[in-house]
């Protein structure tokens, strides 16, 4: 249920958009609007996306956040959230930290769809049938909220803390690999920073995409052929600064790398 007036939702969305453009963080929205609901927050997110699309950006996919049970418990939530991926978020293997505010990197599995998925009623089998291939991926999350002092409503409003993403070196048929047991190793500057597995994301990255298709289906929004879906982190979030080099390897799928410059 929405509690905030449309004018206030627009104001908060514009504030986050301005923060994105100026790279100046804002104070937590929930500290100023303690009555803000998750529905309010998604409406704020939509305002931010509208502002970005008006500048000529375009939607290329979706991202799923809060798939880790540990993070869900920390924020007292029982399900993930989602955000929009835009063309301006696609990165190659080099990213300037000067374009971001408070970047952190996480290793994920990306799905590229070749068929639409329109929930509700989507199953894991439907997701596998609709997926052309999966790829290793770095998601560079970022927060426009000062010092990452976020509650669920803050990150939802801030487009699920989306920043940029880097796709890896291979494309694999998801029907040829068990995504729930794929092991992940993430190295930073030549040292292992974290490890994980597909099961860290709601038991399997496929479960995450199924959840997303059904969650969006309640609003009449399909996942569309050609979209990239980031299925959620397989390990810890890694803070990054200029000079850092990250390497990601996911068993049976491939690898990805990214270098951060000023």
Structure explained in plain terms:
The structure is a single chain. The chain is α+β, with helices and mostly antiparallel strands. It has a single domain (59-261), classed as Fumarylacetoacetate hydrolase, domain 2 (Alpha-Beta Complex). Helices cover 27% and strands 28% of the residues. Strands 1, 2, 4, 5, 6, 9 and 10 form a seven-stranded mixed sheet that branches. A five-stranded mixed sheet has the order 3-12-11-7-8, with no helix packed on it. The longest helix is centred in the first third of the chain and has 17 residues, at 6-22. The mean pLDDT is 94.
At a glance:
This protein has helices spanning 6-22, 29-32, 38-54, 69-75, 124-130, 152-157, 205-217; strands at 59-65, 81-86, 94-96, 104-113, 131-141, 164-167, 183-188, 191-197, 228-230, 238-239, 245-250, 254-261. The chain is α+β, with helices and mostly antiparallel strands. The protein has a single domain (59-261), classed as Fumarylacetoacetase-like, C-terminal domain (Fumarylacetoacetate hydrolase, domain 2, Alpha-Beta Complex), CATH 3.90.850.10.
């Amino acid at each position: 249920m929405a509690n905030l007036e449309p004018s206030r939702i627009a104001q908060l969305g514009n504030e986050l958009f301005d923060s994105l453009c100026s790279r100046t963080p804002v104070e937590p929205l929930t500290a100023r609007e303690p009555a803000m609901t998750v529905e309010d927050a998604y409406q704020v997110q939509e305002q931010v996306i509208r502002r970005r699309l008006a500048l000529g950006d375009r939607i290329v996919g979706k991202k799923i956040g809060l798939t880790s049970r540990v993070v869900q418990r920390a924020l007292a939530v029982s399900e993930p959230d989602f955000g929009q991926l835009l063309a301006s978020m696609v990165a190659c293997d080099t990213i300037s930290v000067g374009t971001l505010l408070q970047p952190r990197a996480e290793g994920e599995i990306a799905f590229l769809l070749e068929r639409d998925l329109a929930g509700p009623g989507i199953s894991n089998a439907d997701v596998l049938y609709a997926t052309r291939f999966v790829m290793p991926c770095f998601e560079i999350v970022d927060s426009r909220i000062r010092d990452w002092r976020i509650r669920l409503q803050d990150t939802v409003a801030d487009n699920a803390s989306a920043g940029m993403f880097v796709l890896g070196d291979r494309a694999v048929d998801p029907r040829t690999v068990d995504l729930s047991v794929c092991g992940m190793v993430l190295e930073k500057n030549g040292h292992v920073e974290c490890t994980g597995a597909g099961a860290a994301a709601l038991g399997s990255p496929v479960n995450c995409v199924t959840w997303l298709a059904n969650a969006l289906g309640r609003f009449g929004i399909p996942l569309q052929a050609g979209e990239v879906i980031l299925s959620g982190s397989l390990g810890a979030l890694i803070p990054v600064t200029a000079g850092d080099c990250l390497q990601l390897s996911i068993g049976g799928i491939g690898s990805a790398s990214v270098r951060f410059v000023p």
